[in-house]
Amino acid sequence: MNEAAPEANAKQPGTMDRMHRLRDHSLAGLRSPRSPRRPRLWFEILLIAVSYWLYSMVRNAVPEQKAAALANADWIWSAERFLGIAVEQSVNHAVNSVTWLIVSMNYYYATLHFIVTIGVLVWLFRRHPGRYAAARLALFATTAAALAGYYLYPLAPPRLMNGSRFIDTVMVHQTWGSMASGNFKNMSNQYAAMPSMHIGWSLWCGLTVFALASAPWARVLGLLYPAVTLIVIVSTANHFWLDALGGLACLSFGYAVSYAWYGALPHHLPKRIPRGAARRPRLSALAVHRAKAAAGRN
C-alpha cells in the first residue's frame, strides 16, 4: 500500500489539472448563450430580410386611425408652440425655396435611411464581429419599440395636418422621396410618425461609428449623420422635433435590452471572437456540478 500511494500522488496533479480545465470549460459553456459569437453571413442576411419584412408588415397593418392621428398632431404642434420650439413650418418653407437643396433632401430621406444602416451592419460584420450581435440586438429592439409606438400613438406628419401651411416637398417637386407621398402613399401607413425611426436608426449608426471607428474623419461623420437627418426630416415636413425624441427613447430602450443580455454595451465587448470559441460544446449544469465536485475531492 505504501508503494501504491506515491504513484497515486504522482497522478493527482494531472487529474486536478484536467478537472480544472473541465470546470472552466463547462462554465464557459454555460455562459455561451449570452456570449457574443461569430456571426454567420447566410443567417444574418436571412434574419435581416425576414425582420424588415415583418417590420413593414406590422407597421402597415397598424390601423391608421386618421382622426386620432390628426388630433395627436394638433396636440404636438400646440405643445411645441407652448415650449417655443415650433419652428418646423419656418424651416420647411425656407428649405423648400431652395429647389436643389430640398430635392436632395427628398432623396436623402428616401434612400440613406436604408443604405447607411445596412452599410454599418456590413462594416460591423466584417471588422467588429465580436460586437456585431450586441449592436444588431440594440437595433432590432429599437425597431420593436417603434412598432409599439406606432400602435399606441398614431400621429400624422406635419405635411398631412388639417389646415396647416406645411409643404409636402415630394408632391410639390415630384420627386421619389417618401413612401407616404405620391404614388407610394397607399403602400405605407401615413399616420405612423411617432417615433421617428429615421432618427432612431441614424443615431444607432452614428453612435456605432463614433464609438468604433479609428479614423477621426469617420467619427466626425458618425456624429454629423443623425444631425443632418434631423434637419432633413423637419425640412421635408415628415416629422416634428418631438418625433425625434421618440426615436431617441426607442434607441435607449434598444441599448438597454442589449446591455441586459450581453452585460455590456456593444463597443465594450471584444472586437473579435476566437474561431474555436464558437465550436465549444455546451455542457449542462449537472456536468458543471460534477466537475466542481471532482475537482474538490482531488
What structural keywords apply?
298 residues, mainly alpha, transmembrane, IPC_Synthase-Related, transmembrane helix, membrane
Q: How are the SSEs ordered, and which strands pair?
A:
Layout: H1 4-31, H2 41-61, H3 66-83, H4 88-96, H5 99-127, H6 129-152, H7 169-173, H8 197-212, H9 216-235, H10 241-262, H11 285-297
Describe the structure.
With 298 residues, this protein is mainly alpha-helical. It has one domain. It is built from 11 helices and no strands. The radius of gyration is 26 Å and the shape is globular. It comes from Streptomyces laculatispora. It is a multi-pass membrane protein.
Q: What is the SS-derived class?
A: mainly alpha
Strand content: under 5%
**β-strand number:** 0
Reading the helices and strands in chain order gives: HHHHHHHHHHH
Q: Helix fraction?
A: 55-70%
Rg, alpha carbons: 26 Å
Brief characterization of the structure:
With 298 residues, the protein is mainly α.
